[in-house]
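Honest question from a wet-lab person: if I give you the sequences of every part of a complex, can you actually get the arrangement of the whole thing, not just the pieces? Trying it with mine:
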Amino acid sequence: MKKIYLPLFIITMIAIIVGIWIYQTDAVKSDTALFSEYMHIGIIILLFAFGIFLAIRRFSSTKKGLPPEDELSKRIEQKAASKSFFVSLFLWLVIMYLQDEKGGEAETFFGYGILGMALLFAGFYFYYYFKGNIDE
Amino acid sequence: MSNRIKELRARFNLTQLDLAQKVGVRRETIVFLEKGKYNPSLKLAHDISKVFECTIEEVFIFS
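Yes, you can. This is the full assembly:
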């Protein structure tokens, strides 16, 4: 049962942090929000939905008396993690180039990088989840 | 690699959920196996063939 409570705890914590973060962004407070601010919120909501999707899958499996994780789900996670890490190396290169060209705060670009990595992981996860053939 | 899981499951009157519970995996794994989208580990292949009371070669066909 601990395997179920830990992700639930992490997701709840992330939800609280994301909620506070979104509440404090200019996009919510002001009427003149930038497109990029809305995009940030959109990506965060997408990632949160991804977390909820994973949690629901775990809960539904456990409810049916099945393990929350098995060899296929672990392999999909590992494959998605390795691919997203590889692609994110190029993402960081692009981000470094953009920071050099456009300037701006390093924290903002770190934010882009972290969000990008998380989005890549979610994208690769769904790709392997629906495509299968992970041994190829 | 193809397999006869669907055919054997019907013969033994098992649902995907029943088979998943017997071998200790998620139902999606059985779906992926039946569609030929996933090659199982040796342990899982052994467990599945044990449920169907036959050898691994009789369930999984290496072509």
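Two things worth pointing out. The longest helix of chain A spans residues 71-102. Chain A touches chain B through 15 residues (CB under 8 Å).
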